[in-house]
Amino acid sequence: MSREQARQALEQARRVAVATHITPDADAISSLIGLTQILRRLGKEAEPFCDDELPPRLRAIPHAEEISRAARGSFDLLVSLDASDPARLGRAFAEVREAPLLNIDHHITNTGFGTVNWVDPSAVATAEMVLWLADDLGVSLDRELASILLAGIVGDTMGLRTPNVTPQVLREVTRLVEAGASLPALVDVLFNRRSFAAIRLFGQALAGVRLEDGVIWTVVTREMRQTLGLGQANDLSLSSFLISAEEARIAAVFTERDDGKVEVSMRARPGYDVARVALAFGGGGHPPAAGCLVPGPLEEVIPPILSALKAAARDGRTDPSG
Question: Where are the alpha helices (DSSP H) in the chain?
Fold first, then answer.
């Protein structure tokens, strides 16, 4: 399915439920709010949903407070954003009467689960695809919309530092900045700000960090979070910090959730692929950044995933220059 079919589906719908994945990142919330605002500016009823808590840093994105946990009732169209498979949506659409599903995503591991699927792995972020839709639908950029969409592009490219940042992406970023978005402010809130409790949690997790066969990893237990008064929302930047270790090829953080499930955040150096590991355990993502949510307990989750990550670190190099 194509971008044009996605545009047509959105144009024809009047009441739209828009959802993104659990344990949301900046791209998930940016694309969710961005598309919701675009549809509302076209005079449509659009409601955003995410079946999980938002990390505090993402609550700074305009209109984040409008996101609900689950949709109810009847809609003309359901839209999934940045989710590689329906399980990643949690219960966002569980109480919605049957409606067509438009699946918009940039993850190469997307399973094509929609009635209409627009999956483009060449996009650096789903928010970039939403920017394209704004152009296709004739919605002009203002400071607010530009800021919302730039947050997703900045978040998924680690501040425009990933290898897939092309001249086209930089031109799009320039457009968004010219429309009023502040690149320094977004980089600051997405990468440089976290609570004192989160920093203490990082300290506890780093105290137990291990490096084995090219894989650096650690654990965040439910007790660690509860002792520090931290909720369910996961700050995935810890795995991004771990992959900075010179000796590591792959990084992983195993976070125990309140429901007993375990969220696994994975990162890889260029030339190594954690997406295929995440996919094998019901998750998805990109070769350098992926994740999965699996049933606990921790002690049963860690050995098989760690074994798969070690195999990827040993055998998965695809780019000798990376």
Answer: 3-12, 26-41, 126-136, 143-156, 167-178, 183-191, 196-207, 222-227, 237-242, 275-280, 298-315
Per-residue model confidence as pLDDT tens digits over 109-129: 899 999 999 999 999 999 999
DSSP string, 192-225: S---HHHHHHHHHHHHT-EEETTEEEEEE-HHHH
Give the tens place of pLDDT for each residue, 78-102: 999 999 999 899 999 988 878 999 9
Q: Give 162's Cβ-side CA count (13 Å radius).
A: 22
- For the chain, which residues make up each domain, given as ranges? 3-190, 196-315
Asked if 32 and 18 touch (Cβ cutoff 8 Å), the reply is yes
Radius of gyration of the chain (CA): 19
pTM (two decimals) = 0.88
Fold of 196-315: Diaminopimelate Epimerase; Chain A, domain 1 (3.10.310)
Q: Is the distance from CB of 78 to CB of 102 less than 8 angstroms?
A: yes
pLDDT score recorded for residue 232:
64
Say yes or no: do domains 3-190 and 196-315 share a fold.
no
CATH number of 3-190: 3.90.1640.10
Confidence of residue 70 (pLDDT cuts 50, 70, 90): very high
